[in-house]
């Protein structure tokens, strides 16, 4: 027992130790990408008539990126203050984790029921519908939700921005819809697979009822399966958050960093610094999420090392 | 199809006394599969007396395990019992609703599964799973159940039981796991234990240890055991009565002495010719030619006829009935004369 | 005599192959959905190929703007009077190109990395897997976005950019499969027979994991399409509730997806038709993938045919073909 716990702590410690290194690599990569294509990325050269800006040396811009990250003063515009940055980080955290929580709350029970009742048309329909939900692009999902809940049924007042509890419902739902699809699908698949295994028969032979078999025996193996599939989905969850922020005009990190492209090739990320700051922030989010998933996996699965 | 409901041999014939604790009559089990309906068990009947050991032997695919699992309502997807009765303490197990059947499982009938790594949930500590029988039937509090599980583990010779209680199945050796499996089966003092190939995956020394433990613990409690096995040696060593199954039918049923001295059915003879006999070490092993049938139709002839060297036209047209040929001996073969016929 | 035995053997082998194929096909269409998906995907493919040949670029006519669906305009018209059906039909090809190109590139990269890691092992494995872990934890779409900005906005570039960053899952899967092949005895015999690493990788490992990669590819197409919608939604020309327009030179279903949002209030067809086409396309892909997966690793035994029009009676087979009770 002791040895196992030590091993888990060591694994997690190693993961945490690697995160800063990876983040530094991301910053360097961001600057390198910015330097590889100065004409496109540097805004001043894209505007005809203006002389091209003199490119800064590579390590100087890397240094500038780290300074920007350290002082929480991102990008070039002076109105992005420290408080604003912290607030946007907070908002995006609430959105991401809230949506994951909501998705798990809805998706996992639906997946379990769909797996347990393979002949029940209602739960099969729920399962199929959730897969469909997961495939609707988040930008369209936002529109659908607004027009269903705000303008159609008048359940939620139509607001912009952030502040009240009501403001959070629809954005969280938008992101959650993407995750519900995956959660239902993989919970269902995992549960189906687990219920076929012989230790379930053994548990039933010992007299456990259906609820006991599902909760005590089948849930943990099924959820470990879900977690392994879910890890690679975290970047997409984050991008759905960005889209939801755009759609509902929420001042989260996506809005703050102004992640957008213009078709005409002009200012993309402002500069290599902005690109690397963006990569840093998003990388941090993804790595923390993945770390939490790893911890949950180690906690659920006694076989893991 | 012949009428399978015949008189069964009870303990009175095999030297033990008393009402049978479990009486299976005319059990028919079918599976719905893509290839069609599979007739896995076609009219099996046998009775188990208190304290008696019954060995069910046969090739794989002859419906031994399915027979036991169907009694507990643990058939997998597509399996169903179409006919038959299984009287257990005055109730018919096959007619019981699932909830009542659940109170029988584990509580009154314990199951020892084959020692696969899968027999225990790899995600739960082994002790919790041993105590599960007691906890899920609410026989005692959780704490008492855990203490009882540790006692049982000690009784079954699992050293350092307190530490082992918290270990996971993959941290235990095969023999230990099988001991734990026996502990989980006997935890609630059941009247009957179904042992589904309890020693197949173990090496022979551990096999003998585990068998000795099982024998010991069941004799002490007066538990009846129905043991499914491939191994004639194991069956001969431990059982009071042997039931030979082939293609979902009982081919021969005899008390152990009778079975060892006067086996009658050609299939039994074939099985014995195909297995090693330490008394005649020089005898060459002869496998039974051919394969077990796929059972896509209910039998309309002797199922063993295609592989039997005695088969005649009658064997290919009529299903032989299971007939009594001695006080503790029944055989289903056209070539063996029944007790009353000669 | 021996000749007769051989010919009999051949016939039986052919029969069993036919039977296997029939069973595989039945597994594929076990619940009907994969066949529907396959049929729909084929129809879409034909439309995408033939469509641009028989239609013209939709004309802009302000006086025809925002017409509801009618016989002349089955899907209605857009905000500049373009026929929506024509736009969808002409945009389908580019969308499919994004999905297929992105999936092909990511599978190619992932397969190479995964097989190399699985076969060479040792430090190659360690380095490549750390690289894969890194690829899992970086915001891939931002890099893809950057690539699109640099290379220009077109279907091929979007597919390329997503393919370049979305290979990590494939690499992990391919490594796992390659390891399972490598730990088998076949690999040992190949090494003992003196096969080189390249020979073993292409002749032994690749064919064995190809079928699994096929399934992955199908799901990956759906995934790449989803990512590309997100990518395009980050485009500022899409502003929800105000509508947008096609960028010059590109004609994508995905653009219609986002552009239609603004016209939802009065002109719902502009929203629902492109979304419907997109979602049905992706769901069809997922169904095909599910069918292929059921075919490859059957977890459940095939159920009895319940709605068979005719009942095919098969003779009782003896033999080891069906191991019924384990």
TrEMBL record, chain A:
Q: Principal localization?
A: membrane
Membrane-spanning residues: 12-33, 94-116, 128-156, 168-187, 279-300
Molecular function via GO: dipeptide transmembrane transporter activity
How would you describe this protein's topology in the membrane? Multi-pass membrane protein
Q: Which residues form the ABC transmembrane type-1 domain?
A: 89-290
Annotated signal peptide: none
Q: Which GO terms describe its cellular component?
A: plasma membrane
The domain of life is Bacteria
Q: One matching Pfam family, short form?
A: BPD_transp_1
Location of the protein in the cell: Cell membrane
Annotated InterPro entries: MetI-like (IPR000515), MetI-like_sf (IPR035906)
Keywords assigned by UniProt, alphabetized: Cell membrane, Membrane, Transmembrane, Transmembrane helix, Transport
Q: Which family does it belong to?
A: Belongs to the binding-protein-dependent transport system permease family.
Q: What is this protein called?
A: Peptide/nickel transport system permease protein/oligopeptide transport system permease protein
Query: What does the record give as the organism's lineage?
Result: Bacteria, Bacillati, Bacillota, Bacilli, Bacillales
Automatic annotation (TrEMBL), chain B:
- Record-linked Pfam families: ABC_tran, oligo_HPY
Single GO molecular-function term?
ATP hydrolysis activity
Transmembrane stretches in the record are none
The topology of this chain with respect to the membrane is: Peripheral membrane protein
SUPFAM superfamilies on file: P-loop containing nucleoside triphosphate hydrolases
Localisation per UniProt entry: Cell membrane
Keyword check for Metal-binding: no
Q: Name one GO biological process term.
A: peptide transport
Residues annotated as domain ABC transporter: 24-272
The principal localisation class reads membrane
Q: Which InterPro entries match?
A: AAA+_ATPase, ABC_Ni/Peptide_Import, ABC_transporter-like_ATP-bd, ABC_transporter-like_CS, Oligopep_ABC_C, P-loop_NTPase
Q: Could you say which residues form the signal peptide? A: none
**Protein keywords:** ATP-binding, Cell membrane, Membrane, Nucleotide-binding, Transport
Keyword Hydrolase attributed = no
Q: Which family does it belong to?
A: Belongs to the ABC transporter superfamily.
Q: Which PANTHER family match?
A: DIPEPTIDE TRANSPORT ATP-BINDING PROTEIN DPPD, OLIGOPEPTIDE TRANSPORT ATP-BINDING PROTEIN APPD
- Protein name as catalogued: Peptide/nickel transport system ATP-binding protein/oligopeptide transport system ATP-binding protein
* Native species: Alicyclobacillus sacchari
Taxonomic lineage is: Bacteria, Bacillati, Bacillota, Bacilli, Bacillales
TrEMBL record, chain C:
Q: Which InterPro entries match?
A: BP-dependent_transpt_permease, MetI-like, MetI-like_sf, OppC_N
Q: What is this protein called?
A: Peptide/nickel transport system permease protein/oligopeptide transport system permease protein
Q: Which UniProt keywords apply?
A: Cell membrane, Membrane, Transmembrane, Transmembrane helix, Transport
What is the species of this protein? Alicyclobacillus sacchari
What Gene Ontology cellular component terms go with this record? plasma membrane
GO BP terms in the entry: transmembrane transport
**Chief subcellular location:** membrane
Q: Which domain of life is it from?
A: Bacteria
TM ranges are 28-50, 96-124, 131-150, 213-234, 269-288
What is the membrane topology here? Answer: Multi-pass membrane protein
All copies of domain ABC transmembrane type-1, residue ranges: 92-296
Lineage, uppermost ranks: Bacteria, Bacillati, Bacillota, Bacilli, Bacillales
Its family? Belongs to the binding-protein-dependent transport system permease family.
Keyword Cell membrane listed:
yes
Location relative to the cell: Cell membrane
């Amino acid at each position: 027992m002791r040895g196992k716990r030590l091993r888990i702590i060591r694994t997690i410690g190693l993961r945490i130790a690697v995160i800063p290194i990876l983040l530094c690599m991301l910053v360097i990569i961001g600057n390198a990408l910015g330097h590889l294509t100065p004409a496109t990325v540097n805004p001043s050269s894209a505007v005809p008539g203006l002389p091209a800006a003199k490119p800064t040396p590579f390590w100087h811009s890397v240094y500038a990126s780290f300074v920007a990250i350290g002082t929480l003063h991102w990008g070039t515009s002076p109105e992005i203050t420290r408080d604003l940055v912290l607030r946007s980080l907070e908002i995006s955290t609430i959105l991401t984790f809230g949506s994951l929580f909501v998705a798990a709350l809805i998706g996992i029970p639906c997946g379990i029921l769909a797996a347990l009742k393979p002949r029940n048309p209602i739960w099969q329909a729920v399962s199929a519908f959730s897969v469909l939900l997961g495939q609707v692009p988040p930008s369209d999902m936002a529109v659908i939700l607004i027009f269903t809940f705000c303008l159609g049924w008048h359940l939620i007042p139509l607001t912009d921005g952030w502040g009240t509890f009501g403001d959070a419902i629809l954005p969280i739902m938008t992101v959650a819809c993407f995750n519900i699809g995956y959660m239902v699908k993989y919970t269902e698949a995992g549960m189906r697979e687990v219920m076929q295994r012989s230790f379930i028969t053994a548990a039933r032979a010992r007299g456990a009822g259906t609820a006991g078999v599902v909760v005590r025996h089948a849930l943990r193996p099924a959820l470990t399966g879900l977690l392994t599939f879910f890890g690679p989905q975290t970047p997409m969850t984050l991008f759905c958050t960005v889209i939801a922020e755009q759609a509902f005009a929420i001042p989260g990190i996506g809005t703050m960093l102004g992640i957008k492209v213009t078709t005409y090739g002009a200012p993309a990320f402002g500069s290599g610094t902005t690109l690397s700051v963006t990569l840093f922030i998003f990388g941090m989010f993804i790595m923390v999420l993945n770390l939490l998933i790893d911890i949950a996996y180690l906690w659920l699965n006694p076989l893991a090392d | 199809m012949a009428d399978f409901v015949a008189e069964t041999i009870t303990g009175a014939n095999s030297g033990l006394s008393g009402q049978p604790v479990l009486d299976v009559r005319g059990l028919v089990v079918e599976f719905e599969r893509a290839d069609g309906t599979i007739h896995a068990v076609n009219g099996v009947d046998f009775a188990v007396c208190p304290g008696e050991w019954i060995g069910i032997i046969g090739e794989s695919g002859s419906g031994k395990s399915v027979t036991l699992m169907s009694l507990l309502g643990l058939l997998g997807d597509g399996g169903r019992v179409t006919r038959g009765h299984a009287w257990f303490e005055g109730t018919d197990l096959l007619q019981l609703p699932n909830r009542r059947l659940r109170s029988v499982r584990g509580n009154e009938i314990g199951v020892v599964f084959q020692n696969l790594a899968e027999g225990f949930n790899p995600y739960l500590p082994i002790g919790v799973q041993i105590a599960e029988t007691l906890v899920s039937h609410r026989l005692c509090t959780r704490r008492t159940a855990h203490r009882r599980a540790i006692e049982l583990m000690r009784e079954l010779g699992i050293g350092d039981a307190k530490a082992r209680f918290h270990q996971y199945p993959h941290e235990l050796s095969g023999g230990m796991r099988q001991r734990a499996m026996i502990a989980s089966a006997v935890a609630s003092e059941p009247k009957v234990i179904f042992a589904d190939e309890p020693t197949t995956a173990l090496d022979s020394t551990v096999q003998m240890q585990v068998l000795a433990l099982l024998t010991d613990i069941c004799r002490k409690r007066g538990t009846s055991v129905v043991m499914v096995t491939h191994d004639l040696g194991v069956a001969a060593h431990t059982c009071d009565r042997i039931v030979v199954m082939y293609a979902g039918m009982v081919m021969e049923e005899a008390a152990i002495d009778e079975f060892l001295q006067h086996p009658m059915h050609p299939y039994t003879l074939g099985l014995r010719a195909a297995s090693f006999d330490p008394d005649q070490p020089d005898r060459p092993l002869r496998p039974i030619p051919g394969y077990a049938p796929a059972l896509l139709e209910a039998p309309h002839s002797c199922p063993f006829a295609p592989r039997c060297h005695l088969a005649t036209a009658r064997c290919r047209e009529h299903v032989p009935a299971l007939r009594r040929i001695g006080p503790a001996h029944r055989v289903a073969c056209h070539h063996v004369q029944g007790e009353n016929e000669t | 005599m021996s000749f007769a035995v051989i010919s009999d053997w051949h016939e039986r082998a052919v029969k069993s192959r036919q039977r296997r194929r029939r069973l595989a096909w039945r597994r594929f269409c076990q619940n009907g959905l994969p066949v529907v998906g396959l049929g729909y995907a084929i129809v879409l493919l034909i439309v995408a190929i033939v469509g641009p040949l028989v239609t013209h670029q939709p004309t802009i006519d302000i006086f025809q703007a925002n017409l509801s669906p009618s016989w002349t305009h089955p899907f209605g018209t857009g905000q500049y009077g373009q026929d929506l059906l024509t736009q969808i039909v002409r945009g389908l090809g580019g969308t499919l190109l994004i999905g297929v190109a992105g999936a092909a590139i990511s599978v190619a990269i992932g397969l190479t990395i995964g097989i190399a890691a699985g076969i060479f092992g040792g430090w190659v494995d360690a380095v490549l897997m750390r690289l894969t872990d890194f690829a899992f934890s970086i915001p891939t779409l931002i890099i893809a976005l950057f690539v699109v900005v640099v290379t220009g906005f077109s279907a091929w570039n979007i597919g390329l950019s997503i393919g370049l960053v979305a290979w990590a899952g494939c690499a992990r899967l391919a490594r796992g499969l390659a390891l399972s092949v490598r730990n088998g005895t076949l690999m040992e015999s190949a090494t003992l027979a003196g096969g080189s690493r390249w020979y073993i990788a292409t002749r032994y490992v690749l064919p064995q994991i190809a079928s699994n990669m096929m399934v992955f590819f199908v799901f990956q197409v759906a995934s790449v399409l989803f990512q590309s919608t997100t990518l395009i939604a980050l485009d500022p020309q899409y502003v929800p509730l105000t509508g947008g327009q096609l960028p010059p030179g590109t004609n994508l279903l995905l653009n219609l997806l986002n552009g239609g949002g603004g016209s939802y209030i009065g002109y719902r067809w502009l929203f629902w038709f492109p979304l419907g086409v997109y979602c049905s396309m992706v769901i069809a892909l997922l169904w095909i993938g599910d069918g292929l997966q059921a075919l490859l690793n059957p977890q459940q035994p095939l159920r009895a045919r319940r709605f068979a029009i005719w009942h095919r009676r098969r003779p009782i087979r003896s033999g080891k073909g069906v191991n019924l009770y384990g």
